[in-house]
Amino acid sequence: MAPLNPALVATFAPPVMEARRWLDGVHFPPDRPLINVSQAAPVDPPPLALRQAMADAALNQPQAHLYGPVLGNAELRAELASTMNRHYGGTVEPAQVAITQGCNQAFTAAIATLAAAGDEVILPTPWYFNHAMWLRMNDIRAVPLPCGTGLLPDPEQAAALITPRTKAIVLVTPNNPSGAEYPGGLVAAFHAVARRHGLVLILDETYRDFDSRNGAPHDLFLDPDWHRDVIHLYSFSKAFRLTGHRVGALVTGTPRMVEVEKFLDCVSISASQMGQIGALWGLRNLMPWVASEREGILTRRTAMMEGFAGTEGWELLGCGAYFTYVRHPFDLPSPDLCQRLVREAGLLMLPGTMFRPDGGGDEMRIAFANIDTAGIAEFFTRLRRFTL
Asked: What is residue 12's DSSP assignment?
């Protein structure tokens, strides 16, 4: 057999794709269709007005079909910087913004500027599996930082894990998979640990538009030197339902942008022009619509919290943005339980084992953003009926 990269071979399979294979050969009767709470990506298309703007660009803007600047279109970089300054305070310059092919690529670019094989990056657990996958396939050690009460990580425990090989600490808030919203003081404490040890804090706020708190969730950007040791990640996919157009962002200091540009030039040359056109139009026209979407997500969040409060044996560990993270009551490992729930209850969710290097056998992640309150009620009806 032809050689294969051993680091890639040693990386676990994509969890969402693995879970989809559990559907093979399973029949879902009309009166009990599948309720899929395995993936957080929006399943509805962007609003009609956004689609019309993108269609107009496709027909009338020749540049929409060509390569663009490697770090992103100037108008979008400037608009996102302005949006961030309004949201967080402080100052983000357009030159400190790069547009990427989705937020996953923003993470890969950040790591490419920071770490090499044999280095270490601290990830709170349960972790976002794509972060752990990218580190593993690059032979970078993902150092697990177990979360405590409320699935919040402890900055001093993180400090105790730091070695000469550590390059960064990664935080995701609101968190995927747990839904936990990290208090501003906690984010600041992690930033202080990173700065004290000469590390970078990577802050992934893919789901910031659905945070239950009003106003800025932290004050990192009020520090005039934030750009020295903060890399901020964002996704337009969730805000404007642009998942198929792959458009995200990385925000950091301009010296690091030199290295980011090298990486992006090799892997994508430039982010999707249609995605960038859609994101720019969305930032300029759709923020009231995003606010209404947020209210809908918060209504679903409340329904999930109330549902688990009334479901015997299940323990709610975290809930926010798109996600609920729970502990199940059954004497069965969560991967086996999840597959039985597909076959016997028409429910597809992900086991906690997909979000940890080990353990998680009594945990589940539920991505509830794509089911309405009626769907949530049906979800709990089926969950309460299920028995081993």
From this structure: P
